[in-house]
Amino acid sequence: MARVTEEDVERVRGFVAAIPPGRVTTYGDLADAAGLSSPRIVGWIMRTDSADLPWHRVIAASGRPPAHLAARQLARLADEGTPIADGRVVLRACRWSPQPD
Question: Which of 31, 54, 64, 80 reaches 20 to 30 Å from 43, CA-CA?
Answer without folding.
Answer: 80
